[in-house]
Amino acid sequence: MQPQSQHGFHPVFCTIVPPHVLDKLSQSDNPDLAGPARRTLESDAARRTRRQMATVVTVPVAPATEGETSDKPARTLYDCRHRTQLPGTKVRAEGQGPTKDASVNRAYAGLGATFELLLKAYGRRSIDGNGLPLIGSVHYDEKYNNAFFDGEQMVFGDGDGEIFLDFTVAIDVIAHELAHGLTQYTANLSYYGQSGALNESVSDVFGSLVKQYSLGQSADQADWLIGAGLLAPRVQGDALRSMKAPGTAYDDDVLGKDPQPASMEDYVHTGEDNGGVHLNSGIPNRAFYLLATALGGNAWERAGQLWFDVLTGGQLAVDADFASFARLTVAAARSRFGEGDEAEAVLKAWSEVGVPTA
After folding, report:
1. Spatial CB neighbours of 95, under 8 Å, sequence gap ≥ 6
2. How much of the chain is helix, strand and coil, in % rounded to 5?
3. 237-269: pLDDT as tens digits
4. Alpha carbons 211 and 300: distance in angstroms, whole number
5. Model confidence, pTM
6. Of 31, 136, 14, nearest in space to 87 by CA
7. Backbone CA torsion sign across 141, 114, 195, 341
8. What span, in angstroms and rounded, lies between the C-alpha atoms of 347 and 330?
9. Catalytic residue positions?
10. 65 pLDDT band (50/70/90 cuts)?
11. Is the peptide bond before 87 cis (omega within 30 degrees of 0)?
12. Which residues contact 67 (CB under 8 A, 6 or more apart)?
C-alpha cells in the first residue's frame, strides 16, 4: 500500500443514507414510501456516475494564496427550490443574519460548527486547511431522502416526511458529509472495501465530535448516534447508526433491522455499496467509541486528536485497511502521549472489535 500523492485528490460522491436502506424502502408496498426512495436511488446513481466520470484524472489541489486563510468560515447557502440544478439560488452569505427558512439557518449553523471544531480543536482552517469556502444547497429535488457531499459542496434533501425528515435537522449529518471533504483533502481514502468503510467511519467520528462539541458534551454524556432526529415518528428507531452499539440504531417493519456489524467476527463481505462501506464502518466506529469513553472527558481532545493525527499525518495509504489504520492510531498515541493510558486504551479498543494492531 502506498501513501497518497500529496499533489491531488479524487473527490467521491458520498451520501448519509446508505443504498441498502433506500433499497429496502423502495420495495415497500406503499407507493408513498417506495416512490421517493426509488427516485432518490436513481438520482444518487446518476450523480455518482457523473462524479466518477469527472474524476478519472486526478484533480490538483490549488495552493493557498496570501491572505486566503482565515479564522472565520466563508459560508454560502443556496436554495434548489426542489430542483436538481446545483447550487441553486443564493439565499445567505457569510455574515448575513438568519433567513425565514429554517433549513438554510440549520445548514449555515452546521457548516459553522464544523469549521469551529476543526479550528479550535485541531488548528485547521476549513476542510482543506487553507480556508476553503463552505457551500451548501437545501431543498434539493422533491422528497429527496438523502444528503451528500459531491467533492465540491454539501446538498440536503427535505426527506419524504414519512420515513425521513429534513436532512438539516441533525448537525452530525451536516458535519459527517463535510468531513468527507476533510478526508478528501488529507488521507484521500479510496471509497471501496475497508478503506471506504474507514472513509465513512471517519465522517461518523467527526460528525459525532462536532455534535458533542456544539452541545458541550463529554464522551460519557454523548448518545453516540448518527442522525438522531432524522427518522420520522412512524419509524421504530433512534437514528441511522449507533457508534456505541452498531446494529441497534433501528428495527422497523419497513426499514428492517440495522445490519451494521460491531466486530470483525461479523464483517460483511458484499459487492454492494462499494463493498459494504456503510455497513463495516460500524467496526472502527465502535473502536473509537470504546477509546473515547475509556479515556473520558471530551472525546475531541485525546481520542479525536489521535484520529486527526492519523488522517493528516501523511502515512495513511489511500487503500488502507482496518489493521493498518489501527496500527497508525497506536503509533500516534505513543508519539503524542508516550507509553501511557492513551496507548493502552487504543490497543484495547481495537482488540475488542477484533482488529489486530501487531
Report:
1. none
2. 45, 10, 45
3. 999 999 999 999 999 999 999 999 999 999 999
4. 10
5. 0.93
6. 136
7. negative
8. 7
9. 177, 278
10. very low
11. yes
12. none
